Amino acid sequence: MPMTSYTTSLRLLRVEIVATNTLASISIMVPFYHSIGMDQSQIGLSQALFTVALLTLNIPTGWIADRFSRKFCNAFGDSGAALGFIFYSQAHSFRDVIIAEIIIGISLAFSHGSDGALLYAYCQRFDSTGRRLRSENAMLTIYKPLAQIIVVLIGGAVAAVSPRTAILISAGPYVFGGILSLIIREDGERFVSIHRNPFRDMTHLTMVSLRDERLRWLIAAHAVGQKITHVMIWALTPLMLTAGVPLKIVAIGWALNAAMVAIGGVIARKWSMRLCEWKRFMWPNIVVLSALSVMSIHLSLITIWLYAGLGLAQGWLGSITMPMIQLHAPSTTQASVGSLAGSVSQLLYIPLVWIVGLVGVLDIRLTMVATILIFSPMVFIASRRLYTLESK
Q1: CB under 8 Å to 317, separation ≥6 — which residues?
Q2: Residue 300: what are its φ and ψ, rounded to 5°?
Q3: DSSP secondary structure string, 146-171?
Q4: What are the helix and strand counts (H, E) for the chain?
Q5: Nearest alpha-carbon partner for 25 in 137, 189, 174
Q6: Which residue, among 296, 294, 300, has the nearest Cα to 245 in the 3D structure?
Q7: Which residues contact 105 (CB under 8 A, 6 or more apart)?
Q8: The dihedral of CA 353, 51, 316, 216: what is its sign?
Q9: How far apart, in whole angstroms, are the C-alpha atoms of residue 240 and residue 305?
Q10: What is the pLDDT of residues 209-262, one digit of tens each?
């Protein structure tokens, strides 16, 4: 295959990943939930059920992608997510939202592991040292929030006229992503089945991955790093309103947070490799916990903008945790290990988003306190284990 084919496929994959990580309606989702009668605990439950759907199929879809086709799993997932958002735009009740979340969760399970596996395979064609993979992940972390800023401003303008239309246009990037997924090249080593029973095969693959201590703690660090900011994401709009931010400029808060994710990616791309792995993981999490501590003590028009620190940490962690896993995992099981990392993240997320949602019913500011109390020991333990493993 000519090298230009890999180059073109990598470029198209970048566009597909960026496009399918945008959500035009994100800034108005909480007001939309409230408009159909949902409270903060139901919002948390809907996100938990989305996560259950994603978790249930993560490992099977990763195995299918590694065994048969990462490309077609990616295309199927993007197309299914588009249908889910179309259904979402017609939701009139909590039940409708649950159905839409489950459809989207099942669909994204097919695409998440496949994206990373294809990116790894393409990058290895150009550079087997891992430098290209780290650079691509950092660049994607920069591009994704910049694209999100554009679509959230468009979505905010559309939502001012019709919130449902803003949700409907969120399906567009997934339609586009599904088309691109059919154009890109299939690549990467195939996983060869060890057992005739596919479920035994999946179990064996999972256990082998988890028995690798270094890989196990890299996955744990990835889960903590991904979810320390995500459990707070649906609290951003209520927190801004509580702090006195006018509703008409709430979208600016979301855009600022997205911009800080991009800045975090830029900083990580330039500086993260100068740090050992445990420090790469620990420092951005300290930024998150510090910002939440200040806001939980005094939430105002001034301190609410410290929420941008969560975006900064998200950009940094998004650039460095998955490449650390991919470069340690076998090339034949990239989608499976990526899906396993996603499953661990979702297992952490399910109870935490529920807890944070429940305390948010009492006082939205308590979401920050709960996040601090839950994640502080996790950050310490994961940092300590990574330090110990690197010292051996």
Answers
A1: 225, 226, 229, 264, 281, 284, 285
A2: -150, 180
A3: HHHHHHHHHHHHHHTT-HHHHHHHTT
A4: 16, 0
A5: 174
A6: 300
A7: 49, 50, 51, 52, 53, 54
A8: positive
A9: 9
A10: 889 999 999 999 999 999 998 888 778 888 998 988 887 788 788 788 888 998
Structure tokens at 263: 């800045």
Q: If 0-12 CB within 10 Å is exposed, 13-18 middle and 19+ buried, where does residue 125 land?
A: middle
Contacts of 210-215 with C-beta under 8 Å, sequence gap 24+, read 210/340, 212/328, 213/389, 214/328, 214/389, 215/325, 215/328, 215/329, 215/337
C-alpha–C-alpha distance, residues 148 and 136, integer Å:
18
Summarised one tens digit per residue, pLDDT across range 297-306 is 999 989 999 9
> d(Cα 166, Cα 380) in Å, to the nearest integer?
40
What torsion do the CA atoms of 151, 157, 160, 163 make, to the nearest 10 degrees? -20
Which pair of tokens denotes residue 148?
């999100």
